From TrEMBL:
UniProt keywords, alphabetically: ATP-binding, Nucleotide-binding, Transport
A Gene Ontology molecular function term of the record: ATP binding
Pfam families xrefs: ABC_tran
SUPFAM superfamilies: P-loop containing nucleoside triphosphate hydrolases
Record-given protein name: ATP-binding cassette domain-containing protein
Taxonomic path: Bacteria, Bacillati, Bacillota, Bacilli, Bacillales
Keyword Metal-binding: no
PROSITE patterns according to UniProt: ABC_TRANSPORTER_2
Species of origin: Fodinisporobacter ferrooxydans
Residue span(s) of domain ABC transporter: 30-263
Domain of life: Bacteria
Length: 339
């Protein structure tokens, strides 16, 4: 069954979550004073974010530790109530109409399990079928397909506690799809898994998306997940969205800064290079006295400008453009808090 919905799957406007954090005063006296009157401060874990997700999108929700990703997902899944802002998910307010709402979403939180530890995987699926009130005639072909694609047949009669992490994650994914939800939230779905299981899970998610039109929002620290799956990346920093667009646009923006590695025939001092480039948009880094890296920060300053200036004073032996990996780009952005 292909999911159909007009209008956005997720519509958040000015979505905000504030937490009150209690401060501890130092020393014994401080602890005693805290008993009677604790000082507190407010933290904006998610700060007025606007987010529209359309049916069928696969969105990577990324950001460094503490950026506010889990808090957003908790609001979108109805676990947390926003402090302010408007929120509609699958046409409902997530924290209001819980029972009807959870039937339209699937959730996989890396650390938390929705399977019953001591019973066989098959029984867990069956229990979930009952919880979600999925008719048998719809459940059977749907689950058979999922079991085959995720290669779960051999695991079905084992209790969950006997499964390896990779096996359990595959079962968690299957469990989140028992009711074939139109929206799937995944929090770090491939963390700690070996390469083969990662690839299988990515393939599976793509297939669900293509076959049923399942909309997927995933948080991940694994850029491989984003490269393989996400048509769109939303990046969060200190509760604010700092980038919303495609991964290739992000790469292109960053590629505006080009880096080149230059080897010289003779020793070159950093001061001499600084003197040449004192007025140019070039950042210089020394690898050793025969090799330097130059980061060209302004597109109007070309590589041939750089070479002309260098060759006028030094004998250049070799030069190579430095490729920037997506991972490096994202790390830079995390560190700098900008995109
Ligand atoms: N229940 C809470 N009470 C107080 N502060 C909280 C609570 N939950 C989260 N925070 C704070 O809100 C901010 C955002 O946390 P959140 O867990 O959403 O980040 P995250 O992006 O999911 O991080 P990670 O990648 O580490 O999971 C952090 O500063 C965190 O300390």
């Amino acid at each position: 069954m292909v999911h159909k919905q007009d209008g956005p799957i997720v519509a958040a406007k000015g979505l905000t979550k504030e937490f009150q954090i209690f401060k501890s005063r130092p020393g014994l006296m401080g602890a005693i004073r805290d008993l009677f009157n604790r000082e507190h401060m407010m933290v904006n874990a998610v700060n007025h974010i606007d987010l529209l997700i359309q049916p069928g999108e696969i969105v990577g929700y990324i950001g460094s530790n503490g950026a506010g990703k889990s808090t957003t997902i908790k609001m979108l899944t109805g676990i947390l109530m926003p402090t302010s802002g408007n929120l509609s998910v699958n046409g409902m307010v997530p924290y209001e109409n819980r029972e009807a709402f959870v039937r339209t979403i699937g959730v996989v939180f890396g650390q938390r399990s929705q399977l019953w530890w001591d019973i066989a995987v098959r029984e867990s699926f069956e229990l979930l079928r009952k919880v979600y009130r999925v008719p048998l005639e719809r459940y059977q072909p749907h689950m058979a397909h999922i079991i085959e694609t995720l290669d779960l047949e051999e695991l079905l009669d084992k209790p969950v506690r006997k499964l390896s992490l990779g096996q359990r994650m595959r079962c968690e994914l299957a469990a989140s799809l028992v009711h074939n939800p139109r929206l799937l939230f995944l929090d770090e779905p491939t963390i700690g898994l070996d390469v083969m299981v990662k690839l299988r899970i990515r393939e599976f998610l793509k297939e669900m998306n293509e076959q049923y039109g399942t909309t997927i929002m995933l948080t991940t620290h694994d850029i491989g997940d984003i490269e393989a799956l996400c048509s769109r990346v939303v990046m969060l920093d200190k509760g604010n969205i700092i980038y919303d667009g495609t991964l290739s646009e992000l790469r292109a923006k960053w590629a505006g800064e080009r880096a080149v590695r230059v080897s010289f025939a003779d020793r070159v001092k950093m001061e001499s290079l600084h003197r040449i480039f004192v007025e140019q948009p070039v950042v210089i880094q020394r690898n050793h006295e025969l090799e330097y890296e130059f980061l060209l920060k302004d597109p109007s300053y070309s590589l041939s400008n750089l070479m002309t200036q260098l060759a006028a004073q030094f004998q250049v032996r070799d030069l190579a453009m430095i490729e920037t990996s997506t991972e490096e780009i994202v790390r830079h952005i995390y560190e700098g808090g900008r995109a």
